[in-house]
Specification:
This protein has 292 residues and is an all-alpha fold. It folds into two domains: 11-203, Orthogonal Bundle (Neurolysin, domain 3); 212-275, no CATH class. It has helices spanning 11-19, 56-75, 83-92, 95-110, 114-135, 138-149, 158-173, 180-210, 226-238, 251-260, 264-275; strands at residues 213-215, 245-247. Strands 1-2 form a two-stranded antiparallel sheet. Helix 2 (56-75) packs antiparallel against helix 3 (83-92), helix 2 (56-75) runs antiparallel to helix 4 and helix 2 (56-75) runs parallel beside helix 5 (114-135). The radius of gyration is 24 Å and the shape is elongated.
Length: 292
C-alpha cells in the first residue's frame, strides 16, 4: 500500500507519470499469463510452464497501475472511514500485483537467469518507489488513522483492532507522518537501497557460480560420504572437469564438505571461498558501490 508524495495528485496519475503512458497489461490477460488469475484446487496455482522473463516487466507495471487505481478510490471515498471501507478495502487491493510479485520473488531467489537479472535491476527501485507512494498517501493515512483511533469504540473484533494497529504502525514506520521533504528523501533512500541490495545479491550469486574448488585426487576426498563424492563428481563433469570433484560455492555444497572432510587445508579453502563471495576485487566486488 502506498501514498502519493505530490500534493493532491492521484496515485494512479503519479504512477502513469513514472511509468510513461499507461502500458497495456502485457497485451491483455489472455496474452500475459502472469496476469491471469490462478485456477485449480487449493485456491488455484500459477502456471509456471507459461511464464517467460519478458512477461515480468509489463505484468508488474499493470499490477502497480491496477493497485494505484484501487488506492486512489479508497483514499477518495467520500464516506466516513470505517474498518470495511478502508482497511478491508486495503486488504483486498493489489491482488494482481501480489500474484505477479510472488512469482517474481521465486525467479529472483531460485531462477535468477542473466535476462531476469536485467529486469530485476530495472524494477527493484520502481517497486520500492511504488510502495513509498502508498505509505506516503496523506488522504489514505488520514483514513487509517481515523479507524485506528476509533478502534475501541467502533465495536471491532480483536482481530480487526489488531489489524488497525498493524496498518497504522506500518504506515508510520514507512514515513506517513514525515513532512514532504523528508518523505521525498526517504523514498530516494529506499530506491537506492533497493538498487544496492539487488546488485549485491546478484554479485554474490555470480561468485557462487564463478568460484569452484576442484578436488584433484582421492586424497582430497578423505572423510567424504559416497553421496557427496558422487554429487561432486557430477558437478565437476557438468563444468567440463571430468575426472575431478567440484565443491561448488553454494551452502548446499560447502556445508556438507566442511562437515565431513578430513582435510583441514581443503576445509579452509572451501570456507574462505564461500565467505569471500563478492570480495574478490573484480567486476562483481560488492565493495564497489556501482559494481554490476
Amino acid at each position: 500500500m502506498v501514498r502519493s508524495v505530490v500534493g493532491g495528485a492521484g496515485l494512479l496519475a503519479l504512477v502513469v507519470a513514472i511509468l510513461g503512458a499507461a502500458p497495456p497489461p502485457g497485451g491483455g490477460e489472455g496474452q500475459n499469463p502472469l496476469l491471469a488469475k490462478w485456477e485449480g484446487p487449493y485456491g488455484g496455482f500459477p502456471l509456471f510452464s507459461a511464464f517467460k522473463v519478458e512477461h515480468f516487466k509489463p505484468a508488474l507495471e499493470a499490477g502497480m497501475a491496477e493497485q494505484a487505481k484501487e488506492i486512489d478510490a479508497i483514499a477518495a471515498n467520500p464516506a466516513p472511514p470505517t474498518f470495511e471501507n478502508t482497511l478491508g478495502a486495503l486488504e483486498r487491493s493489489g491482488r494482481t500485483l501480489a500474484r505477479v510479485s510472488s512469482i517474481y520473488g521465486i525467479y529472483s531467489s531460485t531462477m535468477s537467469s542473466a535476462d531476469f537479472q536485467v529486469v530485476e535491476r530495472d524494477m527493484a527501485p520502481r517497486l520500492a518507489a511504488f510502495q513509498d507512494q502508498i505509505h506516503q498517501n496523506e488522504k489514505l493515512f488520514a483514513r487509517i488513522l481515523a479507524v485506528y483511533e476509533g478502534r475501541e469504540k467502533a465495536g471491532l473484533t480483536p482481530e480487526q483492532q489488531r489489524l488497525s494497529w498493524y496498518y497504522y504502525t506500518d504506515f508510520v514506520r514507512f514515513g506517513a507522518k514525515l513532512d514532504q521533504a523528508a518523505k521525498k528523501r526517504l523514498s530516494e533512500i529506499n530506491q537506492r537501497l533497493a538498487t544496492l541490495y539487488t546488485n549485491f545479491s546478484q554479485n554474490v550469486l555470480a561468485d557462487e557460480h564463478d568460484y569452484v574448488t576442484y578436488l584433484k585426487s582421492k586424497d582430497d576426498l578423505l572423510g567424504l560420504p559416497d553421496s557427496l563424492v558422487s554429487a561432486a563428481a557430477s558437478a565437476a563433469e557438468g563444468r567440463e572437469h571430468k575426472g575431478e570433484w567440484a565443491i561448488t560455492n553454494t551452502r548446499s555444497s560447502m556445508e556438507p564438505f566442511l562437515t565431513y572432510s578430513a582435510r583441514r587445508d581443503l576445509r579452509e579453502t572451501v570456507w574462505r571461498t564461500y565467505y569471500s563471495r563478492g570480495d574478490h576485487d573484480d567486476a562483481k566486488d560488492t565493495k564497489k558501490p556501482e559494481a554490476k
